[in-house]
Amino acid sequence: MMSENLFKCKHFESEIILLCVRWYLKYSLSYRNLVEMMSERGLSISHTTIMRWVHEYSPIIDKKIRKYLKKTNDSWRVDETYIKVKGEWKYLYRVVDSNGNTIDFYFSEKRNKQAAKNFFKKALSSIHNQQPRMITVDKNKAYEVAIPELIYGGVLTCRAGFRQVKYLNNIVEQDHRFIKRKIKSMIGFQNFKTAQKTICGIEIMNMIRKGQVEEIQCALSEIQFINKIMGTTA
Predict the structure, then answer these.
(1) Residues 7, 55 within the same domain
(2) In sequence order, what are the residues at sequence separation of 6 or more whose Cβ sits closer than 8 angstroms to the Cβ of residue 103?
(3) Torsion angle of the four alpha carbons 102, 172, 202, 68, in this order, in degrees rounded to the nearest 10
(4) pLDDT over 50 at 2, yes or no
(5) Which terminus of the chain has fewer Cβ atoms in its 10 Å neighbourhood, N or C?
(6) Residue 169 is part of a domain; what is its CATH number?
C-alpha cells in the first residue's frame, strides 16, 4: 500500500525511479547522463522526468531514513558553505561530529542569527542526535548571539559550551568537498525550493556513504534498504 501511494500514476516501475534518484544523488552524473544510461537499458526517459523524480523523492527518502541513522556524538563542528542559486549565493549550514559523521544540515537564503537558530533547532529535532557538550564554530558573529539565546530558551542545554577555533573545524570544511563536487557537475540551481530538495537528497546519500545507517553494509544492501523504506521490493 505504501508503494502504491508513493508511486501512484507513475509511468515507470518504482525500482527504476529509485535507481535514477539514487544514482543522481550519489554520483557526479547529470540528468542527461542518466537519460543515456537508461536508453542503453531500453528505457526512454526525459531528463525533466528524472529531475521531477529527484525533487519529489529526495525529501521523502531523507524523512524516512532518519530513524535508522546511527547515534552521533556530542562534539559538534559547525560551518557554512556557499551554494549558488540563480546567480545568487545561498548558505548551506552543516554540522558533523568529531568522528566526521553528519549530524545535520540546513539550507538558508540568509546567513544571520535566525538562520543559525533554525539550523540548531532542526539538528536537535532528529532522534539520532543528542545535546552537544561542545560546539565548535567559525568566526560568524551570528553564533555568538544565537547560541546563548538557544541556551536561555531551553533549546540547548545550559552545559553546552562553544568555541571559535578555526583549525578544529577542518573536519567539517573537508567534509564540504562531497557536496561541492556533486553540485559542480550540475548546470546550476534555478530555484531555492528545488535546490533545497536536491541538497537534502545529496546529504542523505553522503550519510549512507559514511556508514551512518546500520543496515547498509554494501551497495546491494543499500539498494535493498532504500527499496524497503520506500515500500517497494528490490
Answers:
(1) yes
(2) 72, 76, 95, 96, 97, 123, 126, 129
(3) 0
(4) no
(5) N
(6) 3.30.420.10
